[in-house]
Automatic annotation (TrEMBL):
Biological role stated in the UniProt entry: Site-specific tyrosine recombinase, which acts by catalyzing the cutting and rejoining of the recombining DNA molecules. The XerC-XerD complex is essential to convert dimers of the bacterial chromosome into monomers to permit their segregation at cell division. It also contributes to the segregational stability of plasmids.
Protein name from the UniProt record: Tyrosine recombinase XerC
UniProt-annotated location(s): Cytoplasm
Residue ranges occupied by any Tyr recombinase domain in the UniProt entry: 120-313
Family statement: Belongs to the 'phage' integrase family. XerC subfamily.
Domain Core-binding (CB): 7-99
Entries under SUPFAM superfamilies matching the protein: DNA breaking-rejoining enzymes
Organism: Yaniella flava
């Protein structure tokens, strides 16, 4: 429990998180974010209203004016608009749950609105940059005559091929098990947000890279007496973590030397954009990425159109 939150408020937060996990089937990552946001609200209001007192409950008495003041204070402290929007959503959903539970008669957060987030197109790599990145990884993984291999470089190549092939999230790659790979159909089964499963196709290079890793690299990395079902392992032979995957991808992006893009989501954005550039149906891309809303997927059409516009201006003599 956060030290300056009342035990009553802490219990409500615990009950809400239990509801998110067992009734709403939210992911652990989502639950951690919601918990952090509502704990922050209780802590900040406690600091502002009861600095010299023992923690007092705030959720049962909080008003819309106090909630708006809280968001304004966060804004003054330099919190970004995207984070403010997320916190606002977390608080609205929590307060609505309090009303449904009969803990409150009114919902002060129903009209709580954070400032709109700025429109921002995601960073992507060009096809030439992706080709350069994959060729660089392959050169590190296997010697030119094919006799010498670097097992971890084989793993990195396979991970990047899968991320670019499918556009799956880092948590989905982390959770991928050997039994989830169907080599005969060139497909993988992934578990996404809310434990929802979907099947996505693999490119031939991705299938080849996974096979090379499993047959030539993974046996050299797996820990003694540790039978992990995971496809991808860390250097200690256990299932690789999200942090290690991010480090691998960031190193690949840095080695390119031609982009300021960073973060593992760049490969997800790139996969979606290249599919749409190639004429893929928007709903097919939505299903591939595991987006609940088509509106989320439509963001990539803006990236694709922006590239088309740039190419048009460069190529057309009167543009």
């Amino acid at each position: 429990m956060v030290s300056n939150i009342s035990s009553q408020d802490a219990e409500l937060i615990d009950e809400y998180c239990h509801h998110l996990k067992h009734e709403m089937n939210r992911s652990d990552h989502t639950i951690r974010s919601y918990r952090s946001d509502v704990q922050g609200l209780a802590s900040d209001l406690q600091t502002a209203s009861a600095q010299a007192q023992d923690p007092v409950p705030v959720f049962r008495e909080i008003t819309l004016e106090e909630l708006r003041g809280w968001l304004a204070q966060l804004t003054r402290h330099g919190i970004g608009r995207t984070t403010l929007a997320r916190k606002s959503t977390s608080v609205r959903q929590f307060m609505a749950w309090l009303v449904r539970q009969g803990i409150r008669d009114d919902d002060p957060a129903a009209r709580l609105v954070a400032s709109k987030t700025a429109s921002h197109l995601p960073d992507t790599l060009s096809k030439a940059q992706m080709r350069q990145a994959l060729e660089g990884l392959k050169a590190k993984a296997v010697s030119t005559d094919g006799t010498q291999i670097d097992p971890l470089a084989l793993r990195d190549l396979a991970m990047v091929e899968v991320l670019y092939s499918t556009g799956i999230r880092v948590a989905e790659l982390e959770g991928l098990d050997i039994d989830d790979v169907d080599f005969s159909r060139a497909m993988i089964k992934v578990t996404g947000k809310g434990d929802k499963q979907r099947v996505v196709p693999l490119t031939n290079p991705a299938v080849d890279a996974i096979e090379q890793w499993l047959h030539r690299g993974r046996p050299q990395v797996v820990a003694n007496n540790h039978q992990s079902p995971a496809v991808f392992l860390g250097s200690r032979g256990k299932r690789i973590g999200a942090r290690q995957i991010r480090e691998v991808v960031n190193a690949v992006l840095k080695d390119l030397g031609t982009t300021s893009a960073s973060g593992v989501h760049v490969l997800r954005h790139t996969a979606a954009t290249h599919l749409l550039d190639g004429g893929a149906d928007l709903r097919s891309v939505q299903e591939l990425l595991g987006h609940e809303s088509l509106q989320t997927t439509q963001l990539y059409t803006h990236v694709s159109i922006d590239r088309l516009r740039q190419g048009y201006r460069q190529a057309h003599p009167r543009a």
